[in-house]
Amino acid sequence: MSNSAESATAAGGSGETGTVPCGPRHVAIIMDGNGRWAQARGRPRLFGHHAGARRVREVVEACPDLGVKYLTIFAFSTENWKRTQVEVAGLMSLFRRYISKEMQALAARNVRVRFIGDRDRLDAKLTALMDQLEQTTQGNDGTHLTIALNYGGRDEVARATRRLAQDVADGTLKPEDVDEETLPKYLDTHVLPDPDLVIRTSGEARISNFLLWQSAYSEYEFIDTLWPDFTEDELARLCRNFGRRDRRFGAVKT
Description:
Blueprint lengths: L7 E4 L5 E4 L5 E5 L3 H6 L5 H22 L3 E8 L7 H24 L3 E5 L7 H14 L6 E8 L1 H18 L26 E4 L18 E4 L9 H12 L11
Parallel strand pairs: 3-4, 3-7, 4-6, 5-6, 7-8
Antiparallel strand pairs: 1-2
Helix pairs in contact: 2-3, 2-6, 3-4
């Protein structure tokens, strides 16, 4: 569904300047390792989450120079409610503070912000801020930042299937017309291209219920860096690596 972007100039992790050949147009990131980063410094886990939020700003700012038009970040999963009440409450407070603080800056940088996930379990103040940020930036056409909040890939597909089934029941969609092109129109990401590159930080090598449908043909990078230590240079290196990959989408080159 998505195509690689044209080449863009980027700085490498070693400090050298190079070109990102056919770099990723859409990068999705599982931002993992905030808690371990904080604990390694003898600080509470929420200290790491605040550091991770600051890192988001730097990564968003780096995207235009790397040719990354779409950035999707995994902020809070449907499974994260299992964490302690203190951590969940702290994260919700952080999300409210981040949106309030960054709203005007994101708008000024021509960033278009969208949220994906089930908003029903989120508090009214947070969802109001999410709506406000989306409305404030809806006319922007620079970097498209998508924030997955109370998001799970299985939950997304289940919600999409319910909407699709309702359309079939209402007679606006025929069962025989349901195919691989139909279901994506009901997903939270229906206006976005599929991710070209999915990055997970912190050394874990699993996708944790993130963009299950959309990432069927994404390239993956599992790196040891904890999210608060992730840098623009590392993103540039991963974009260069992506440009060297041979993406065949199930076909064989002749």
